[in-house]
Design a protein that fits this description.
By secondary structure, the chain is an alpha/beta fold. It is 31% helix and 11% strand. Strands 1-2-5 form a three-stranded antiparallel β-sheet. Strand 6, helix 7 (212-221) and strand 7 form a beta-alpha-beta unit. Helix 3 (73-85) packs across helix 6.
């Protein structure tokens, strides 16, 4: 975890605990080739060190187990089968290069998951017979992907931080539900899992705000009730970039190795969110009294520890 991950986790934890709710930890490990050995254990260790606990999760179990997405593929397949049967999804033989070449108006949705970045899908395979699409994909040595038929739906929702938010230009697009390699896409998996796990509130980073209209469209297509959403500001690097592996941000593990106390890190996270005086050490529990998500500082922040 880096400071951006930790700050969002802290705000989600405070929101759940202040309301007397259940805090759920789910491991979103769909992209198996990118999963690093020991990453899950390190994540759980970082959260526990900060003082963030959870009621349900991969180590604790719970009524909606399993809590690793890599173990929930049958549920995603069932949802895709339903969407295909009801005409809300279709097979697609297009590669990323095909989409890039065909798209007339490239648009980056900034949705936070790898398969969601890039030009808007132009509808090449929508409406084509499935057998034709499968044959085209086979001729290129791959299986077809599955896309949601977004139908350019104009979806608006109320975000607890941003207020009224609408789908991006052109409405909901034909985004990927299952990749050609058989892995379920982020958009589908989180909708299926949040509904199955009876999640009523989602607190997450601003980088996922653009995904929400897509997910609400999926909730509606599957006759499910969407949760309330709150997208909190991000932590940015000194260069103004979102924290990610390429920006090499300081990790919670590296701060621990340097000898910082968890109260110092939590204090810095809380100070950046306007929940405590800057650089004043504190604990997660100490922040619960009177916590309101609406009080969180608006706008992205920079955050560095000495």
């Amino acid at each position: 975890m880096h400071l951006g991950n930790a700050r969002t986790a802290l705000l989600a934890w405070l929101d759940a605990r202040a309301a007397g709710g259940t805090f759920l930890l789910r491991i979103e490990d769909l992209d198996r080739p990118r999963v690093q050995p020991g990453a899950e254990a390190a994540l759980l260790s970082d959260l526990a060190w900060l003082g963030i606990d959870w009621d349900e999760g991969p180590d604790r179990g719970g009524p909606f187990a399993p809590y690793r997405q890599s173990e929930r593929a049958a549920r995603y397949d069932a949802a895709i089968d339903r969407l295909l049967a009801e005409g809300s999804a279709f097979l697609c033989a297009c590669s990323r290069l095909d989409v890039a070449r065909a798209a007339s108006a490239p648009h980056d949705f900034g949705a936070g998951a790898g398969e969601d970045h890039g030009p808007r899908y132009p509808g090449t395979c929508r409406g084509r017979p499935p057998a034709e699409v499968r044959a085209r994909a086979a001729s290129q040595g791959r299986n077809p992907a599955i896309r949601f038929d977004g139908r350019a739906a104009q979806i608006e929702f109320i975000d607890e931080i941003h207020g009224r938010v609408a789908a991006g230009p052109g409405g909901v697009d034909d985004f990927v539900l299952r990749r050609a390699d058989g892995a379920a896409a982020y958009q589908l998996a989180v909708v299926v899992d949040d509904a199955a796990m009876q999640v009523t509130r989602v607190v997450r980073g601003d980088d996922l705000l653009a995904s929400t209209a897509r997910q609400i469209a999926l909730y509606r297509a599957l006759a499910l009730t969407p949760p309330a959403f709150a997208h909190v500001p991000l932590v940015l690097s000194a260069d103004g970039e979102r924290l990610a592996k390429r920006t090499r941000p300081a990790t919670i593990a590296s701060l621990r190795e340097r000898g910082l106390l968890p109260e110092a890190v939590v204090g810095a996270l809380a100070g950046s969110a306007g929940l405590a005086a800057p650089d004043r050490p504190t604990s997660c529990r100490a922040l619960l009294g009177g916590f309101r998500l609406a009080a969180v500082t608006r706008g992205p922040v920079g955050l560095e520890l000495p």
